[in-house]
C-alpha cells in the first residue's frame, strides 16, 4: 500500500509540475485572415494570457485585425464593424451586443495600461471561428463574398502627378469593411460629369480628373466590382468641391461621394498593410 501511495504522489507531482510549466508558457495568437488562407502571427505589446480558462488580449489587437472601429470613453470600449456594435466595460461581466446584454465568462481588466478583453467572445461576435490548441489561439475569418463570389483582393489605384500607385489588400475582414465604406459613401445619383480628362495634368478649371480606382477581384483576378473616383480642378481661391464623384461600373451609374470616405479607405488600407494584409503592387511614379 505504501508503494502505491508513493507512486500516486509521484504521479501527481509530475502532473502538477507539468501544469506549472504549461501555465508559464506564453499564449501565441495568430489570424487566418488572408484570402490565401495563410496564418499570420499577431504581434502585441502586451502578451495574451489566460484568465478563467479564457484567452485575454488587448482590445486594440483584435479590433485592428478585424478592421473594427473603436470608441473609448471613461471605462467603456465600443467596437463597431458593419451592423455589429459591441460594448465592454472594465470590471463588468456584462457586454452589450446590438442593445442585447450578454454575460461574459471573463471580466475585462487593465494590465500595463492596456484593456484586456476575452478574445473568443469578441471574435465570435464578429463572425470568426476560434481554435485553441497547444498554447496557440487561431482566429479564422470567413471569406468576403460579393454576389456569392469570394473576393481575393481589393486593389486601390491612386492617381498622382505624372503617375499612379497600385496597392492591394488581401485580408478578408478589411476587404469587407472597405466594400461597406464605398457603398455607404454613395450619395445622390448624378448625371455623368462634362469635361472629364484622363489625368490631372490635362485638367483645366472645371474639368473632372481621376482621383482613385477601387477594384474587388475574384480568385482568377477578374473584377467583381469596379469604381472610378473623380474630383474637380478648381481655382486656388475657390472653396473645395465638398464631395467627389464616383462611377460604379457594375451599375453604369454616377454618384456624389462622401468627401471623408476616400481618406477613411486610405487609413484602413494602411492598417491592413501594417498587419500583413497588403502592400504596393505597382509604383508608376517617375
TrEMBL record:
<dbReference type="InterPro" id="IPR036582">
    <property type="entry name" value="Mao_N_sf"/>
</dbReference>
<dbReference type="InterPro" id="IPR012854">
    <property type="entry name" value="Cu_amine_oxidase-like_N"/>
</dbReference>
<feature type="domain" description="Copper amine oxidase-like N-terminal">
    <location>
        <begin position="41"/>
        <end position="140"/>
    </location>
</feature>
<feature type="signal peptide">
    <location>
        <begin position="1"/>
        <end position="23"/>
    </location>
</feature>
<dbReference type="Pfam" id="PF07833">
    <property type="entry name" value="Cu_amine_oxidN1"/>
</dbReference>
<keyword id="KW-0732">Signal</keyword>
<protein>
    <submittedName>
        <fullName>Copper amine oxidase N-terminal domain</fullName>
    </submittedName>
</protein>
